[in-house]
Amino acid sequence: MAVKMRLQRHGSKKRPFYFIVVADARSPRDGKFIQKLGSYNPLTVPASIQIDRQKALEWLHKGAQPTDTVRRILSFKGVLYLKHLLRGVTLGLFDEATAMEKFTKWSTEHDSEFAKRQESHKKSRTTSRQPIARRADRGSSSSRSAGSSTESASKASQSANENATAEKSGSSE
Description:
CATH 3.30.1320.10, 2 domains, 5-stranded mixed sheet
């Protein structure tokens, strides 16, 4: 029996929410599954992912094949890196304590980078909101200034017309 780790869609139309599940490859996308590993919500910014690392690692060791999206999620959460490190332990390249030390170091670095990205997104989001309000202010002031500039242009053309008529009447006398 081929076992896959894949996303199971839930949520309403155009509002997806996914469960990360282990299922038989022959079962339908939203059908019967063996075990639920976590959830994935792509609508939040950044996308929120909850996953049980130990269960996912056990299923990877049993031979479950993740789909492309689930593979990226597992990679982002460090499950594939942990599997790689544990493979090094079984080959005798280093001991389990070293592997866990490397994983915790990677995890802290990854979490700090993620927090920086999340903070920069929040900052860009707040700064991107301010110009929209300014544009609205500019739009109302620019329409006022555009109106005043058309008024001044019409006054200038009236004075030019008066000067031209005065010159014509003065030159004919």
